[in-house]
Amino acid sequence: MRKRMRRAVVGVLLAVCMLVLSGCGGQRMMMGTGGTAGTYYAFGGVLAQYMKNYTGYSVTAVSTAASKANIQSIGDGDYQMGFTQSDVMTYAWEGSKSFETDGPCRDFRVLGALYAETVQLITMKEDIKSVSDLKGRSVSIGAPGSGVYFNAVDVLEGAGLTVDDIKPQYQSFDDSKEALKDGQIDAAFIVAGAPTSAITELATTNGVFLVPIEGELRDKIMKICPYYAPLQIPADTYPGQPDPIETITIKATMVVDADLDDDVVYQLTAAIFDHKEEITLENAKGAELSVENATSGIAVPFHAGAARYFAEHGVKVETE
Fold it and tell me: pLDDT tens across 172-182, in order?
């Protein structure tokens, strides 16, 4: 009840600001991103600026605990939009996995998928060449209940392992980087758009190996979890990476408060997808922005405002 009342109050305040833009300085909105060493934070800052430039609404990108936290914060009325992994938003909608205890969360709608979010397994140990080699090792698998955690569990299970077969460490991307450098862990799962700054820094200063997720292992993972897709990390994505690496991916997706005005979300959507070229000049992930990528492989309803934008560009999406 308290959550619903809080959301209602926030909705009223936002509506008032829309009616008196001159007095409020434009609608003010908060965008949840992720940790400062990840792609969400860097790309979110760029997108927030374009939203501000082309809509007049004040959008602030803030560092958060990422996918689940952003969805819950939208539900609490603290944020009006945020980044999330496409698999995590499906968990929220269904009340499964990371949302099994809390139950379904459906206070959000999809604005659009943004780019491929790559499952990257990294190590500085030359004898770790496959997922199976993680048995008995100290491995960072993300915060408990996070998207990274469930991606790591999916990959381990595909290789016939469980969390009990490794020495799990629950660390952020930046903490994983430092722990690898200090020899405190043997490997780490990092799920973010490649190149990821934490991995680039580690590869530049210390050297790092990317462990492939390919062949029968990848086929098995995708059969059990159909929201994954195959992806190849091109050669030279990171310093000292001469060969392409096969792995799996989900999608980084922007979600918004379900109660946001349709016209507002339409304008926010246009601010992103109408300016792909300019955004790409500021962040390489912009190159993946497209109407087709934004609307495919999404199992959760879109916001009506975003749906209107995509319909004008030839793609119909579900809103309920």
Answer: 888 999 999 99
What gap in Å lies between CA 76 and CA 176, rounded to an integer? 30
Host domain of residue 146: 118-250
CATH number at residue 241: 3.40.190.10
Cα–Cα distance list, 80 to 38, 83, 259 (Å): 21, 11, 9
Amino acid symbol at 202: L
Residue 6 class from Cβ within 10 Å (0-12 exposed, 13-18 middle, 19+ buried)?
middle
Number of domains observed in the structure of the chain: 2
Residues 218 and 139 in one domain: yes
The one-letter amino acid at 293: N
- The helix or strand, by DSSP H or E, that contains position 59, with its residue range, turns out to be strand 58-62
Bridge partner list, 169 = 140
- The count of other CB atoms within 10 Å of the CB of residue 167 is 13
Helix (H), strand (E) at residue 246:
strand 245-257
Q: Which residue has the tokens 């952003």?
A: 70
Alpha-carbon distance 247 to 258, whole Å? 33
On whether residue 186 sits in a domain, the answer given is yes
The model's pTM is 0.80
* 102 and 187, same domain (yes or no): no
Residue 320 belongs to some domain of the structure: no
Peptide bond before residue 195 is cis, with ω within 30 degrees of 0: yes
Q: What is the pLDDT of residues 113-125, one digit of tens each?
A: 999 999 999 999 9
* Dihedral of the alpha carbons of 93, 318, 147, 235, in degrees to the nearest 10: 170
